[in-house]
Amino acid sequence: MTRIKHGRLGWVPNVRSPIRYSQTPISAPVAAPSVGQHTDEVLRELIGGDDARIAQLAAAGVFGSAAPPVSDP
Prior knowledge:
Blueprint: E1 2-6, E2 10-14, H1 39-47, H2 51-59
């Protein structure tokens, strides 16, 4: 087990891969994206939306504008 830094959650546990290859370097793990973290980029690419159009869709409730709050276990 290792720990990796997550943007919203702080340090989170991560299962390190047991697979090791002699000729392949191991890349550093990265945390999964937060819910909605890439929504703007995806919408720009899929619908060619600009900031105004994306804000309009968010205001209409088409998608959430932020990730849900983190709850304590």
